[in-house]
């Protein structure tokens, strides 16, 4: 028996191009992941044939949150032979499900989020995270694209919104969340300018 469940979390920056869809398909096909959480899909509709293709024909079930216009969108893909997902809930900024690992019977709550980039919606996003916190005693894996930081060292310049950073940290504390630290690199995002902002 094992509790291992390989998970991929990926901001795909839009699945509205053939090249990106092929890249996701090839990557997921070449991994041993059991669950894939894709953010910023920019898709309003996802059908089972498309979801199966994205999942490399191995991740055989899905749920999705539609994009609003060309903003946001989340797809959750999983291998039913390894994990059962139930009680799927689509929130303002998230998809949540109860995951049961078939081999061990272990369960936890999984939430994939995509926070809006617009500053005016950040507080609503943080309130949403607080509202969907599971009941005490339920393990929770919260992952996705938060579009927020809580430490100055998570950005390569001093253009910081200290108020938002404090509110994000307060939300993490209230929800009793612990960060899974990034290994082998400092940043995951770049604005791809000549003198880039890295976060």
Cα-based radius of gyration, to the nearest Å: 17 Å
- Count the helices. How many? 4
> What is the tally of beta strands?
8
In total, the number of domains comes to 1
Broad CATH class: Alpha Beta
Helix/sheet category: alpha/beta
Low-confidence regions? none
Q: Tell me the helix content.
A: 10-25%
How do the SSEs run, as a string of H and E? Answer: EHEHEEEEEHEH
Q: What fraction of the residues are assigned to beta strands by DSSP?
A: 25-35%
Main β-sheet description:
4 strands, mixed
Apparent shape: globular
CATH architecture: 4-Layer Sandwich
Q: Enter the CATH topology name.
A: Deoxyribonuclease I, Chain A
Strand order of the largest sheet: 1-2-4-3
CATH superfamily: Endonuclease/exonuclease/phosphatase
Mean pLDDT: 94
Question: Describe it for me?
Answer:
Strand 3 (61-65) and strand 4 (74-78) form a beta hairpin. This protein has a single domain, classed as Endonuclease/exonuclease/phosphatase (Deoxyribonuclease I, Chain A, 4-Layer Sandwich). It contains four helices and eight strands; from the N terminus they run βαβαβββββαβα. It is globular, with a radius of gyration of 17 Å. The mean pLDDT is 94. Helix 3 packs parallel to helix 4. The protein is an alpha/beta fold. Helix content is 21%, strand content 25%. The strands form two sheets. It has a four-stranded mixed β-sheet, covered by helices on one side.
Write the layout of secondary structure elements.
Elements (H helix, E strand, L loop, with lengths): L6 E5 L6 H12 L5 E5 L8 H7 L6 E5 L8 E5 L4 E8 L3 E8 L5 E8 L7 H10 L8 E6 L16 H13 L25
Parallel strand pairs: 1-2, 7-8
Antiparallel strand pairs: 2-4, 3-4, 5-6, 6-7
